[in-house]
Amino acid sequence: MWYLVVFVLGAIIGSFLNVVIYRLPRKNQGLSLVKPAYSICPKCKAKIHWYDNIPLVSFLALRGTCRNCKERISPRYFFVELINSSGYLINFLIFRNNILELFAMCVMLSSIIVIVFIDLEFMLIPDATLFLIGVSSFLIWFYSTQRVLNLLSGGIVTSLFVLLALLYKGGMGSGDVILAGLMAIVAGLLGSLYALMFASISALLYAAIKNRGKIEAKQRIPFGTFLGPAFYFVILIQKAWPWM
What we know:
By secondary structure, the chain is mostly helical. The protein contains 8 helices and no strands. It is 66% helix and 0% strand. α4 (99-122) runs antiparallel to α5, α5 crosses α7 and α6 (147-167) packs across α7. The protein is globular, with a radius of gyration of 19 Å.
């Protein structure tokens, strides 16, 4: 029963994350998280009624189209809800004996999902997501058996990213630096190096695919899109299999 509750809750929050992803970077277009107070079609701006706004179900029932204008709606909406609900379920399986860690990992996951899609489209990491990741990281760090070492790891990783940002001007923003530093206090130094390696490989593959096999030295890459998930999966693996 609890598995279903967690999955449904994750899907509902995933639906809200879609609102955040669409509206947060579009403040200059008169949108906010509370205005309008109802969901709208991203194409025709028509109000989406509750029966067309049921997480996961409505997208499938409408075959990914708007009931009003019949235009295709990005599959991102479905996948955000699916990833968030599935992630919450995985978190519950691993952290169900510690409510605070479970809460923190779910907040971290949802914040990273927002970062992935906003950074991918706008090359921007919202301050609100960094704040939430900071809170969740310190909650998880509190239960660490190596608090001092993990804090040192956060400082080392932050310094390393500052250096990279200075060397690769324009290729790494302050949001990437803060994101890495905050999550490093949970992942530790070795885990952070793994996360950096996975994120770098993924980012280079993305750049190569986007430019049809070519990687330009001055090409801007939404590094947060790859850095956040890499850190999250490393932390998840560390918590699930602490002997690794």
